[in-house]
Amino acid sequence: MKKYIFILLLLCNILIYAQTSFNSKDFKVTRNDLEINTYEKDSTANALVIYEQGNSYFDKKDFVLKTEIKRKIKIFNKEGFNEATTSIHLYITKNNKEKIEKIIATTHNLENEVVTKTKLKKANIFREKYDENHTLVKFTLPNIKEGSVITYSYTIISPFMFKYKGWWFQDEIPTLYSEYRTSVPAIYDYNIKLVGGKKLSINEHELERYCLIAFNGGSCDCTNSIYAMENIPAFIEEDYMTSKKNYLARIEYELKTYKGFDGTIKNYTKTWKYTDKDFKTNGDIGKQLRKKVDAEKILSTEITNQQDTLKKAQAIFKHVQDNYVWNEEYRIFKDVSVKDLIKNKSGNVSSINILLHNLLKESGINVNSVLLSTRGNGFPTKIYPVISDFNYLIVQATINNKTYLLDATDIYLSFGNLPFRCLNGYGRLMDFNNGSKWIDIVPNIASTVQYKAELSIDENENITGIINSKTTGYRALSSKKRYYPNPDSYIDDLENSYPNIEITNHEVISKDITSNQFLENYNILYSSDETGDNIYLNPFFITFLKENPFKLQDRTYPIDFGYKSSFFYVLKLNFGDAYSIIEKPTDLNLTLPNNKGSILFSSVVQGDFIQLVLKINFKDSIYDPEYYPYLKEFMSKIVDIQTNSLILLKKK
User: Which of 19, 35, 184, 370 is the most buried (most CB within 10 A)?
Assistant: First the structure.
């Protein structure tokens, strides 16, 4: 009897679950899909991928790669309406192109308990040129409402066997079920990489014999695979991260070798040894790096006659910085010309830094080029050479057994420092004599923010005094870029950031725009809050953090600040004979796990003075995701200290 009761309860639970869950098993839209209007695992979701499937295979008749894609998406609210617009990038070359066919899209609604369907019309499918290698196909599903379920499917036909379609399991909205089926003939050998750190719920493979037969009678087997993930959370971008491409769950393919039916073998993914050789003979970069320049014609005699090697290198760097303007284009493998740069005084990243490389080399300085990928471009693959992963070129100079990484595209950079966009972990040093190798891209300078305030209360109960500010490293770089183009605007922004403060006599002490420091001081007038005989004073006239940048419940990717940093604020307030301190802020001493960061806040009263000190130190530039809850609390404490610390003064 107990057994039958258990079975009955189990069946009831299954029935209840079936009645309250989305159909994530196939492409069919069910009543539940339309009626359910929340996602229990993420109540903040504006939309949800209920089901999606991709199927890539080589067409046995036309010998092209076909990829069939199906998606079913639930729209919860108006903020999710943008999911009804789909953009598909098709790859094109001068001689060939990808095509798309069989676009079928339908909007499903539940209106007065009746299921309605609205189909996409062909006239509402648009094509446009995206860039020189891509055409964009775009459509928006019709009749979108809160609660709609949209379905769409299409097939991409590609002649490019080297570009086997990758599959993205994760998106900016959550996904219940994502499946990718592939069939790969043995004549193609791909490097297959799972990115994003999430586990597959299905990872199955089987061999299909004689799946592909050539016109000459040759044949090969195929490996048929099924990859799937379930209950994939939305990827939410937050401050202090590199490209989301580094962390989104997906599968990527890189063609390694093609073995023809006639016995020919062609290697696509080569070793770094072969890649170095190709790079050296490359028509754009390789040729330009070997190009001789007339240093004596380009540089002044003061620079060419300089005997100190480091000073000479610094002067050459400054000359390129000051005389050649970056046109904001990377294009490191295309349109690279030192000759055109010298003529036009403007060029892309490669042209400017290759000119720097060649001038240093002509001056007898040991230099090499370094390929890297910027923070917004994603991490370059280390497993095998993928030159297209790189989008930036810098220079490494070795002087007196010390190495310097140089980039002359930014007029505010000091010698040996790189733009923030370049702080992406590592790069590939292209040494034509000894072979290329990976090197770390690590800032060699400290980045600090320091404020020292000496203030006093005047007879009108206003607080006046002077603030001395010092920033270094990347903090100084940011200050310089805000100040030097428009000093008046900089001061206005400073005052607007702190509305209770009036700033006068602003002065910048450091005059060199490439200095590693930015020093300034100014007088302030601060109006305090007075209640009867008491003055309530927030001692933080300058704040490091206005709000906590970390708001997620959980973060699965690293917190990447780019560089280590520290903050220091000291206030010395003379409250004179007319006042006494009734209350002062509570001291705090907090450290991150493994001593990877610290907050020290203290206040001391001595005679007619009170001195407050706040020290904040981030000892790492990158923190693993497990540090996120600690950093979140850490930031919260910083905000709390700077917004809720009060000094209570009372008239004697």
Answer: 370
Domains of the chain: total? 3
Between 318 and 500, residue with greater pLDDT: 318
Co-location of 578 and 628 in the same domain: yes
| DSSP symbol at 112 | T
Q: How many CB atoms are closer than 10 A to CB 308?
A: 11
Domain boundary among 407, 441, 475: 441
Rounded CA separation 125/318 (Å): 52
CB count within 10 Å of CB 150 equals 26
Q: Give helix 487-497 / helix 473-483 axis angle, nearest 10°.
A: 110
Output the six-digit token pair for 620.
Answer: 């790492």
Pairing of strands 325-326, 346-347: parallel
Q: What is the pLDDT of residue 20?
A: 56
SS (H, E, C) 257-316: EEECCCCCEEECCCCHHHHHHHHHHCCCHHHHHHCCCCHHHHCCHHHHCCCCHHHHHHHH
pLDDT confidence of residue 285: 86
Instruction: Report CA torsion sign: 227, 228, 233, 236.
Output: positive
Cβ pair 650, 582 in contact under 8 A: yes
User: Would you say residue 21 has pLDDT above 50?
Assistant: yes
Nearest to 543 by CA among 591, 501, 604: 501
Closest CA to 236 of 174, 321, 162, 328: 174
3-state secondary structure of 474: helix
Q: Could you give the CA distance from residue 558 to residue 196 in angstroms, rounded to a whole number?
A: 12
SS3 358: helix
Query: What pLDDT was estimated at residue 532?
Result: 66
**Across 2-10, average pLDDT:** 46
pLDDT at 17 over 50: no
List beta partners, residue 114. 111
Final residue before a domain boundary, out of 237, 266, 295: 266
On whether the CB atoms of residues 158 and 67 are closer than 8 A, the answer is yes
5 domain residue, yes or no: no
- Condensed to tens digits (0 to 9), the pLDDT of residues 425-480 reads 999 999 988 999 999 999 988 899 999 999 998 777 788 999 999 999 999 999 99
Residue 173 inside a domain? The answer is: yes
Q: Which two tokens stand for residue 630?
A: 């600690």
User: Which residues are paired to 67 by β-bridges?
Assistant: 56, 156
Domain assignment present for 11: no
Clarify whether residues 173 and 292 are in a common domain. Answer: no
Query: Which tens digits make up the pLDDT trace of 258-287?
Result: 998 888 898 887 889 988 988 888 767 888
Residue 212's H or E segment, with its range, is strand 202-213
Residue 18: pLDDT band (50, 70, 90) is: very low
Q: Which two tokens stand for residue 196?
A: 């994003």
Burial class (CB in 10 A: 0-12, 13-18, 19+), 401: exposed
What's phi and psi for 270, nearest 5 deg? -105, 170
Residue 531's contacts (CB-CB under 8 Å, 6 or more residues apart) are none
Q: Rounded distance, CA 429 to CA 290, Å?
A: 16
7 has a pLDDT exceeding 70 = no
Q: Which residue has the tokens 């006599």?
A: 505
Maximum Cα interatomic distance, the chain, rounded to a whole number of Å: 105
Range of the domain at 473: 447-651
Computed from CA positions of residues 428, 430, 434, 440, in that sequence, does the dihedral angle turn out positive or negative? negative
Q: Token digits for 527? A: 């109006």
User: According to the model, what pLDDT value does residue 131 have?
Assistant: 85
Same domain, 283 and 431: yes
Query: Phi, psi at residue 526, to the nearest 5°?
Result: -120, 125
pLDDT band with cut points at 50, 70 and 90 for residue 11: very low
Please give the distance of CA 614 from its chain centroid, rounded to a whole number. 30
Euclidean distance between the first and the last CA atom of the chain, given in angstroms as a whole number:
86
